[in-house]
Structure formats: C-alpha cells, structure tokens
Amino acid sequence: MSEPRRSPEHVAHARRRVLLQDVAARAVVTVGGLGTIAAVSGVFLFLVVVVWDLFLPARIGEREALANPRAAIDARIVGTDEYVGILWHIDEDGVVRALAIDDGAPLSAVALGAEGVASTAAVSEPGGTACAIAFADGQVVVGEVGFATSFREVGDVDQSLRSLGVGERRAVDGELVERTVRGGFRLQRLDFRERSSVRFFADGHPVIALHRAARGADVVVAAIGQDGRVGVRRLRRDEDPLTGDVVMEWSPVAAIAVGRSASGSPRFVRLTDRGTNLAVAWADGTLERWSLRRLDAAELAETADLVPGNGELTALEVLLGGVTLISGTAAGDVAGWFVVPDDASPDGFRLTLGHAFPAEEGAAVRVLASSGRERIFLVGDSGGHVRALHMTSEKVLARVVSQGGELRALALSPPTDRVIAAGSDAIETWSFDPRHPEVSLTSLFLPVAYERYPEPAFVWQSSSGTDEFEPKLSLVPLVFGTIKATLFAMWMAVPLALLAALFTSEFLGARQKARLKPLVELMASLPSVVLGFLAAVVIAPAAQDAFPALLACVWTVPVTVVLAAQVFQSAPPAFVAAHQGWRLPLALLAVAVGTCLGMVSGPAVEALLFAGDFRLWLDGGLGSGLGAWVVVLLPLCAVGVILGLQMRFRDRLDRLVARGQPGWLVHGCGTVVAAAVSIGVAVLVGFVVHGGLGTHGPVDLREGLPIGAFDLSPFGTFDQRNALVVGFVMGFALVPVIYTIAEDALSSVPDHLRAASLGAGASRWQTAVRVVVPAAASGLFSACMVGLGRAVGETMIVLMAAGNTPILSMNAFAGFRTLSANIATELPEAAPGSTHYRTLFLAALVLFAMTFAINTVAEAVRQRFRQRAVEL
Amino acid sequence: MLWLTGAALVVCLAMVFGLCGWIAIRALPSFWPGEVVALETRDGALHVGEVARVEEYRIDADSAAGLPADVRSGLAVDEDGVLSASRTLLRTGNYDLFESHFRWIDDTDLVGSAQGVARLPDEVAVVERMEWGRFYGFPTLAARVEDLGADRGDEEARRAELAARAVVKPPDGAVAGARVRRVGVDGGSVDRFVRIESVLDDDRITGFAWLFEGSSEAWARLAEWVPLAAAQRARIGELREREVGAVAARLESARLLRREAELEHRPSPAWIAAYDDLRAARLAEDPDAAARAERTLADVERDFGPAPAAFRRAIEDAEAVERAAEAEFAVLIDQIAAIEAQAARHVVHFATSAEGVEKSIQALDIVRAYPANRLGLLDRVGIYVSRWGEFLGGQPREANNEGGVFPAIFGTVLMTLLMCLVVVPFGVLAALYLREYARDGLWVSVLRIAVNNLAGVPSIVFGVFGLGFFCYIVGASIDDLFYAARLPQPTFGKGGLIWASLTLALLTAPVVIVATEEALAAVPRSVREGSYACGAGQWQTLRRVVLPQAMPGILTGAILAMARGAGEVAPLMLVGAVKLAPELPFALEPPFGINRSFMHLGFHVYDLGFQSQNSEAAKPMVYTTALLLIVVVVILNVAALMLRARLRRRSFHAAF
Questions:
Q1: Which residues are registered as beta bridge partners of B491?
Q2: Is the pLDDT reported for residue B106 higher than 60?
Q3: Distance of alpha carbon A672 from alpha carbon A679, whole angstroms
C-alpha cells in the first residue's frame, strides 16, 4: 500500500459508498430473488389461467330481428350458408327463400313443388343443407339447398357496386355480392339442387311426416302417410364408371307394419345409424324401433316408451352423428336416447336413455335442432324460450327468449356462431360462442353416458377424424393409470431402497459407505429416456417369457439370502466377528444363487401354477385360477407363517443348538421348512378362496375383479408392454431418490441413542430396528413420499414402456396411460386454445396438484422430523 | 433380516452396473467392423452379410419332419422331446436391391451337414453409402467415365473428339500391367452402366470410360477415390450451405422487405393482388394477360386509390434484391452441378450375393469401403476409430439410422449452457435473498417450502408451461412486435432453443437455489463477523468473503442443474426438440439462431428407439447415443460430487 488516505472527507465518502452499495445490493438481490421465485411459482398460476377458460360459460349476444318482407313467416326449416351470409328457409307453401343475414334483404326464392301445392313436411340433416320436402299431392323432393358462386373482376360489374369496401356485402338482383380481399366480387345465388322427386306412396297418398338419412351415396327416406301407414324408400345413385352418367332410381315402397303396440297414427318418423334404424313414435311416447338392415325385410327390433306416464311427445329429432335421438315432451322435458348392445334384443341392440334435461319453463317443446359441427342442439318451446344444450356434458349453454311469435324452426349456423329462430312473425338471430361446451367438472371426473356405451363410463378418447365423433374427455383413466404406475413402481422401489438405506447407514463402515452411496446416487442421474428405451426395447421382450421365473425369483432370492445368513451367523462368533466385511460379497453370491435357482425353477412354477404356458394361462385359455391366488397370497402367508413359527419354535431350535447340534444345520432346516410351510399354506388358502368362497363358482382373478367401473384384479390378458415392466424400471429410477433421503434420515439419528442401546446389551440389528428406525420413521416416510412424487410425474419411462392404453384395469400384465405420457403425446398436436389443448393443461394442473400435495406432506413431515431430531 | 438389507443394497448396485454395463456392451462393439459371412441355403441362394445375432427357437414336429434326414438328426432335442434349432439374423444390407436390411436365415436351411460353419469370402467389400444404407458386394470393376455430352457439337465433331481422346494416356495411378481398356458408356447413366465393345460404330455413344478390371484394381481405385469423394462432398456441402444460408436468406429478406413495406404503408390488398397478377403476366411474357391485368390494376386504383409512392419504391427495391439473389443462386447451382458432374465420373461396379444382380456405385456416394475379411487388427481399429469420429462429428444420414449425432451434441450442449447462463445468476440471487437478506420467519419458510416443492414438480408440467407461455404467448408477442413481416410463419412463436433453455432453467432453478443456500449456510458465522469487525459493509462481506467461500457449492449446484437439464427429455418434446433439424441452432445475425428447433441427444434416443421404422438398423445408433448421453450426465454428476467433497473438506477446515 502506498499512501493511506485518511482524510475525514474520504472516510465519510467511503462509508457513504459502502452504504450505497449495501442498499443497491439489497434492492437487486431482493427484487431478483423474489422475482425468480415468483417466476417459478408463476407456472402454477399460468396453468390455472389457461384452464380457467374451460369453465367459463358460453356467450350469447343480443337479439337481432331481421326485417320481415312477408306478413307472416311459416317456415318449416331454416338454415344458413357456410359463411353465415345468407339465411334460407323452406316454407309451408313449398318455396325455399333466401335473404341476406346482415340486413334481411330478400335475395331469391325457388318453388320446389308443383304450382300452388303446399308442403306438408320438411326435414334437413343436422346443421346441413341436404333436405327432404313432402307435398300435399304426395310428392317427396330430395335435394340440397346450395349456393352457386361466381366471381367478377372490377371492370365487369355495375358502377354502383364499386363503392363497396373489402369484405362488405350487398344484395343485388337476388344475389349476395361480397367484395373479396383481391378487390374482385364474389356473387352467391340460392341454388336448390334437386336430386330426385317421387310420388312417395304409389297411390299418391299425402305424406304428413318424413325423414331422410344418407347411406353411402344413397338416400333413405321414411315417411308417414295421412292414414298412419309408414313406408321406406331408398334413392339409389348409380354412376356409370365409363361414361360418368349418374342414374337415380327409387326402390319400391317398403311398407312397415307399425302400430302393433300403439294406437292411432304415428306422429314422428326418424332414421338413425345411417338409415339402418327406423324410429316411429306416437304422441303418447310409444316408440317402435325397426331394424332396416335389409330394406325389404324390416324387422321390429323393440318397443320403447319415451314419455313415462301420461305425458305427450311433442318433438323428436336426430343429433349430429345420426346415433342419438332427442325427444321433447309437452311438459318441457328433453332427453337423449341411443342404442346400446344388448344380447337379449332381436337385433342385438336396445334403446336406452342416455341424457335427461329437466324442464325449465314447463312449456311444451316445439322445435329441436342439432348443430352440424358439435353435439349442441337447440330446444324451443311454445312459450318462445330457446335453450342451447350440449348432449354429452348435459350443460345448458344459453337461454334466450324469442319475441317473433310462435316458434316454427330453429337452427345453428354451420360454424356454431349464430342461433337462428324463425317465428311466425319474425326471424331472429343471436350471435353465439359455445366456448368449451363438452367440458365440465362432471364430464371430467364422473362417468358420462357416451353413445353406444351401455353404461356411463370413464373414457379418454380425444382424437377425432370427423365432426361426428363424440370426444370423450374423462381424466379418470389417466389419473388411474398414473396411480397404477406409481403403485407398481413403489411396490418395487420402497422395500429395496429402505432396506438398502438401513444397511448403508447402520452396518457399513464409513469408508465403504463413502464409496457405495454415491454409486447408488448415480442411478438417479441416469436419464429416464435411456431407462424407458431399455424397458421398451430390451426388458419387455426379454421378460415376456420369463415372468414365471421372475415370480420364482421374488421367492427364491430372499430365501437363499436368509439361508446364507443363517449359515454364516451360525459359525463360531469369533469367525463371524473377524469376517464382518465379507457380508456384502456373500450377500451378492446369495443373490446370484437365488436368481439362478429362480430361473431354473421357472418352468416348474409355470407348469405347476400356470398350466405350462403363462401367457395362454393369463388369457384365461388354460388351467384354473388357483395360481393367481397363490401368487397373491404367498407373501402374506409367508409373513404370517414366519412370525408364527418364530414365536412357537425359536426357543426349541435354540435349545437344540445349545445341545450341541450344528447351528447352521438347525437354522438352515428351519428356514427351508418355513419356506415350504408358507408355500403349502398359500396353496391351501388359495384353494379355499378360489373354490370355496364362491357361492357363484370359482373366483378367477383372471376374469377381473370389478369394483365400480374399475377392475382391481392384478391378472388378465397379457401385453408385452405392461405395468410390471414399467414398475420394475420406474422402481429403478425411484430407488436412488428414496434411498438418499432415507439414508440421510437414518444417519442423522444421534449417535448417543445407538450408544445407549448397544450399551444396554442390544445387538446392532435390534438397535437398528427398535431404536434407529422408529426415531427416523418420519424421515423414512417423507423419503417415500418424495419417491411417490417422482413416480407420479415420471414421463419418458411410461411413455415408452407402458403401451399407452387408457384402460381402467389394475392388471399387472396390461398397459396403461398416465397423465404425463398423455400430455407428451397429445399436446404437440393440440391446437392452441382449443378444448383439447386446455384439457391437457388441466391434466398438467392435476399432475401439479398431485405432486404438490404429496411433496407438501413430505416436507411437513420432514420439518417435524428435524425438530424431533434436534430434541433427541 | 440384516442380510436382507444387505442383499437389497447389493441388488441396487447390481442393477446400476448391470444397466450401464448392458448399454456399454451393446454400444461399444457396434462400430467394430466385423467379419462378413456367406451362408448358402438349400434353395441355392447365397446370403452375404454381418451376423447381427443368433437365437434358438422351437421347431414343431411337422416342420421338422419336412427336413432332410441329415439335418433332422443334427437338431438339438431337450428332455421333453422338443426339437430346437438356431437361426441367424444376417445384416444383408443392399436395401435398394433386396428391400430389407436384415434377413433371418434358419440353420436348417443351410447347405451341407456343416451347419453353422460360415464361409468368409475373401473378396467381399462392405460399403457404407450416403443413401440406402450398407452395401455388401464383390468389387469387379472400377471405371472413370469421360462424358463428352450428348449435345456437344454434331455427330462428326463428336466422333473426331472421341478419336482424339482415344490416344489419351491411361490415367495416373493405373497399376502397371493392369489391363486398361477404353469403352463407351451408354448415355452417361451410371446405374445402367453398360460395357460396349464396339466404341466408334455406335451412334448412341456419348462418351467413354477408363475401366480398371479385376478386384485388386477396383480396390486400388476405391482407396484413391473415396477420400477424393469425401473432399468433393465437403465442397458441395459447403456450397449448399452458402446457397441455403446466404442466397435463401437474401430471397427471404427480399420477401420480408416487401412485407414490411406492406405493413408500414398498408396499401389495399386488392392493389397488391392486381399488381402481382400484372407482374406474373409480364414474367410469363403473356401480353394478353398483361393487358388484362393492367386494366384491372387501373380499375382497382380508381376504386381504392393508388398505392403510396414509397411503397412502390420499396417493392421495386425488393424485386431488385430478389433478382440479384436468383442470379447468384443460379451461379451456385451451376458450381454444384459442375462438381457433381466431376465427382460422378468415378464409378465402382460390384457383383452381389444374388446371381446376376450387379450394382454400380458412384464414388461420391461412398462414405467408407473396406475388405471386411482381409483386415488386420490395426485396420479394424482404424475403421472403428474413424466410425466413432464420424459418429461424434458427423451429420446424421438414413433417417438418423447412420452417420453422426453432431447436431444433437451441439444442440444439447448449447441448450444446457444457455440454461446455465440463465439459471445460475437468478438462482444465486434467490438463494442470497432467502439466506442473507430476508428476515427469518413464516414468509421465508413458506418460500422455502415452495421452492423445495417446485423441485418435485414433474418436468412435463414445466414443458406444458413452456409451450403455453413461452412459445404461444411470449414468442407470439415477440413475433407480433418485431417479426410481423414473417407471419404467419412463426419466428419465436414455436418451439426453439431459447424456450427450451428457459423452460429447463425454471425446472432446475430449485436445484441451484437449494445448493447455493446450503453453500451459504456452510460459511461459518465467525468469518462474516470477522469481516464486519474490519468495517466491511454487508455487500462487501458477501462479495469478498462469503461468495468466494461458497463458490464450490454454487458450482456444484450449477453442475447438478446441468446434469438434470442434459438428461431431461419430456419437456423438450413440447418446446423445440425435433427429430431432424436442418440447421444448427446458431447464427451470426440476430436472433443468432436461438429461435430454431434443435436436436437433442435424449430426444434422439427416444426418437430412434421408439419411433424408428427400421428399429433393427437403428439399434446400434440408439445404444451408442444412449451411452454418450449417460457418459455426459455421469461426468457432470461426478464433477459435482467431487466438488461437493472438496467443499466439505474446506468447510471442515474453515470451521476451526
């Protein structure tokens, strides 16, 4: 140091600088530190924000009434085009009319029937444009409401149109003109494309109700005549492959002999399942379902009652997909019905009530209309109340009241963004945003009635090829899969890790411990993707033939080790004391011998318990279910038998040894006898449980053990990628996690406790089990909880080795799908902001919540343990 | 019971060693150039390839009865009378000819009683190709093709040139005494390489070739041409890089220039559409269409007003840039074509194991060729080392089944470093706050529990967050603000290196915080008090005394975080790791490539092991990649352990 500067000003300056630095550092560290912690915690908040949107209600806008050019509107059906620019309705006078949806300006009209003949009925496909119209003269017209589109350049149109801005629309000469982005004009004109018309009943009898369904390229039409007769015809479309000419041909009327179970004329006729099922319903709610698999040989499949009691059926419609029937009653009740498999029925199906929507206003349901994109439908009643409902989730999405007089027809625009109601006085529209109608807490976590499922079920099936698919978004199978993976992994990891930790902490010398502990911890750093790869590609194929041998190993390895221990400990005490260090290599040898024994005895086990072929036996094709019970009961019996024998015979054995018998022989024989006896007991108990319990015959675990919707039996059909393999490999990943924390907990038990115990004459084993383990119990518990947390969130191993089938079975030989693997496979393909995307975020949130809860418990227990350890 | 605990520890250890050992055993020999066997089956076919593995299988009695007596008597019989035989999985390569890489050969089908004894053909060559995987064959001929070009000059001139060339000396390096002949080549097509005896009498002849007949000649040429081809491939790769990197970037910048101008001046889309039509018509030299487009443009200008002059200038500039880039592009393409033509002159012709099936391979396509059964130990070691070199430093080929994993290594390392750069400062700040600045109390213990808890949150949850927040919200906002011209093509609004690093930084923050806290706590109070007593402020004490002492602990935390980050795959699947990235995630211009998707070793293992079509051929790569990943992670962990041990020793000394 040259010249120390010590002027008072300088000291003051230095002090100021130091203080300033302190303040600045404090500010930076506080802001940075808290910011970092906040950022990490923000993960949770962000997930909540994304998920929140799922549970927001649907939005519906203000009522907009269209100017009405006609004195009264008597629409039978109503709809819009794809771009929601043109609204069309088919009226009682048999004319289809189009108008601009923006201002209600009329565009054009096309008469569909003969001059002056009124229509008697009209239907269209859900949300679509294909329709069928019946006329008073007995004619039925099948066709499609289409729009002819043409484009014009700027120079080719009237001068007045050129004031239109891009995207603006105007009705001109019956056409809707829209200026395109390119500055040109798109012209749209109503164009009813008639496919065919026919005098439906040969005698020209008028039709009062009809329905149509597409069956491939053909159209099936069913109709009710004025006198109550019901007929079905098929419009066949044949295309000549050479010339490309299309020939349309009507099949003759197939008369359906309805009414055997009801009186009077039927009122509704509906075709479902691509025209293979015909539903004919009467006003009193009686419904006859006819199987139309062969049109010329229709067969009455069943009769059902849609309206129990004295109610009146006032509306019947088909939901998107053509499977579910929607019924509405005079009391205002709405219900969804679909067929489920039933062996007792003549055609193998039975109509069941899937969803019920209770009445709200009590007015009779007048109109039902399904969306063409989602499973949303509209219900309108005689009081003008219109509700938008979602079939699968049973959510009420929106309620509006029509002021346009008596409701005649309802429709949802094709993009489901507008509700249209045609009343007797006016046409009204409401803008509509259903948001995420198929998701609700109940549909996520409770059983849901899905089409064709006999009972409400938990199903995850998110991918959809078409709009007609019913998305099934239940998180329960995924949560179940997560729990299954966790259970199997913990079953393997906990005993191994805790025992190993106990040995490391209590019986290893300091130097050995310093060498071996990091090795086990190294397991933690093995990337899980490598473990997953090994599980899927190496272990699963190798293990598929070795399961009996592996099961045998679970038994032979401990027995061999115990045997080896008995022999070693029975040597002269001086020898034992001198060769303590040999314990580990000897244990290794015993494990190896035990494994070999297990491998060798594998085929014998397979022959005895599993009828010689394990995989066939699992499929239920061979042998009896006794083996399953033995496998399940053996560990329990072993514990019971060993404890029992210990209490009863320990002293006698000791006496034998004292009398000069060689100790290794006595204890060795004791071990072998104990093992044999427990096997015997297990077989015996298994025999009793398998055969005797059953007042309904043998209880075979392979056939499942259903409890609610879950199958809790650990046996069942074999998959190569199964829970045992995952359990083994994931257990491998968990061992170091549990081991490290457990070992720390055991090691931190203060030494004076050990010293006291040893001083009081206890052996080291007694000290370990009776003093150290109880003192560290909460630490051990917390170790297991941390392991549990890891298992819940593990992704790569289950993704690669678990087969990814979202099933609800505990079968150890079948796969499963966990929350984490599901996210990893489906999130990259989910459209941001979609229902699927947000549901996957919800899955992540559930995962987060599960691990957070588990870790918090672990942390709390650990804190308590620390306090106790300090007190000790 | 005591013994059971010991056995548990033994089982744990056995599993660690078993697993690592298994991977090492499968990975290490996979690059070893093995011997090539020839197996002849009774149907007369010869199968040549490397043995992948041999396994036993059961034969049912019916099919055993159909075998010849001598074969049947050779079958192994166990005590239950079940017959078993062995079969060999042979890597036969030649996918382009046989449509499979591997083939099972039953020993019972082999000719002769000496089953299982394979012939080792002396002449067989193993050729690693750029495409179609490995090739096994017998080199018969090497050719240097001199192409005269079909369109050059008239027939007379071509004949004259041929005649002139006929007296050209044999190329340098022709083995003395080798029969060097001059023949023509049909149309220059190498795959349909045909020898034509009469050279000058055939009108179709467009060139000629120097032929080096016989396998020793062919081997000599291979030795000469393969390194040459490697240099040419490198040159072509370099040119392509420039073509893709520079010219494509200029084309892109021209597009961006125009798009930016559009966003700035907002001309009506109708005007742009009409203008584009006009330009297209002019480029196509279609006067009618151009006239029509001009009229439309005029109409549009009347309706929507003309485009701003600045905008017109901007798009004309952009067009100029585009034209220049296209010209440069053409030059580069020509250069590449020239080298390719040059390289395509060297062709080696092979016979294969199948009778009458022959194959010509351009030297350009050959990565490596060696006589598998004639190699000495040193040669084999050389090939082994060179394969490892290619694996570590090369680009992947053949749907990642062959070649190297350099891009994956690069991606992993860069991502981990970036992650470290983010997580270490912030993690240390958080730990400093918790340990040194915050007052102990409920608040701090809540924070501490939260941090510990976050360490246990599944990594996939962080991946979900990264995708939803970083990619779709932060990235999309950056795109809107700075890269609007490139939309709808996302720049940052998709998975990328930076988002992967940030996601993993969040994931590993608790690791760093906990480790740093421990390190800070290990600095004895006495040391601080000494510092305060000397008049130092809090920050001075921290910076000069506490932090240096805690440094090894902080480093340990950083290394542990790196190890965790390098081995983590699940979140990366969501935020940017891809099967095959066209470019390394690094560039010299902003945004420096950090927005690009990248390859990652862990994801590579997942992709190859789980998603690969040709899983048998992919196995060597999966095992070697897995081994590499384990080695990297284990090295990082061991480094952390050693640092921790040193820290403990030091703190022990410091606590006197």
A1: none
A2: yes
A3: 11
Across the range A354-370, mean pLDDT stands at 90
Backbone angles phi, psi at A715, to 5 degrees: -120, 155
Beta bridge partners of A147: A190
B458: nearest CB among A40, A503, A820: A820
Burial group, residue A136, by CB count within 10 angstroms (0-12, 13-18, 19+) = middle
Q: Is the pTM of this model over 0.90?
A: no
Instruction: Tell me the helices (H) and strands (E) count for chain A, helix number first.
Output: 20, 35
The amino acid at B582: P
CA distance B33 to chain A (A): 24
- A108-132 tens-digit pLDDT: 888 888 888 888 999 988 877 888 9
Q: Are A811 and A725 in contact (CB under 8 A)?
A: no
A87 vs A66, A176, A372, A869, CA distance in Å?
Answer: 10, 11, 16, 78
Query: Could you tell me which chain A residue has the CA closest to the CA of B604?
Result: A529
**Which among B434, B465, B469 has CB closest to A33?**
B434
Q: Which position has the token pair 């019924």?
A: A327
pLDDT computed for residue B582 by the predictor: 73
Cross-strand bridge partners of residue A250: A235
What three-state secondary structure class fits A312?
Answer: coil
CA dihedral A422, A427, A433, A439 (to 10 degrees): -10
CA contacts within 13 A on the Cβ side of A776: 28
Task: Report residue A824 as tokens.
Answer: 């990893």
Q: Report B:479-498 residues touching A (Cβ under 8 A).
A: none
| Cα separation, B261 vs A482, whole angstroms | 53
| Best residue in A30, A482, A486, A529 for a mutation probing chain B (most B CBs within 10 Å) | A529
Q: How far apart are CA A383 and CA B157, in angstroms?
A: 98
Nearest to A824 among B15, B453, B573 (CB): B573
- Residue percentage of chain A with pLDDT more than 90: 16
* Helix residue ranges per DSSP H, A570-662: 573-578, 583-609, 614-618, 626-658
Task: Give CA–CA dist A165/A183, Å, rounded.
Answer: 8
Token pair, residue B541, equals: 């004490």
Are the beta carbons of B458 and A507 separated by less than 8 Å?
Answer: no
* pLDDT for the residue B453: 80
Q: Average pLDDT over chain A, rounded to whole?
A: 84
Per-residue pLDDT tens for B423-459? 999 888 888 888 888 877 788 888 888 888 888 888 9
Strand, helix or coil at A578? helix
> What is the rounded CA–CA span in Å between residue A357 and residue A374?
18
Looking at residue B249, the DSSP 8-state letter turns out to be H
Q: Is B382 helix (H, G, I), strand (E, B) or coil?
A: helix
Assigned token pair, B237: 């790769």
Which residue from A276, A151, A180, A280 is spatially nearest to A228, judged by alpha carbons? A280
The answer to whether A610 and A630 have CB atoms below 8 angstroms apart is no
Burial of A294 per CB tally in 10 Å (0-12, 13-18, 19+): exposed
One-letter identity of residue A73: I
Segment 21-60 of chain A within 8 Å of chain B by CB: 21-22, 24-26, 28-30, 32-37, 39-41, 43, 46-47, 50
Buried b (16+ CB within 10 A) or exposed e, B641-654: bebbeebeeebeee
Residue partners of A644: CB distance under 8 A and separation at least 6:
none
Contact status, residue B11 vs residue A591, Cβ threshold 8 Å = yes
**Distance from C-alpha of B313 to C-alpha of B476, rounded to nearest angstrom:** 30
Walk me through the domains of chain B, giving residue ranges and CATH numbers.
Answer: 31-118 (2.30.30), 121-243+345-377 (no CATH), 244-342 (no CATH), 407-649 (1.10.3720.10)
Please report the ipTM that was assigned to this predicted complex: 0.86
The tokens of A494 are what? 């906990």
- C-beta separation of A753 from A872 below 8 A: yes
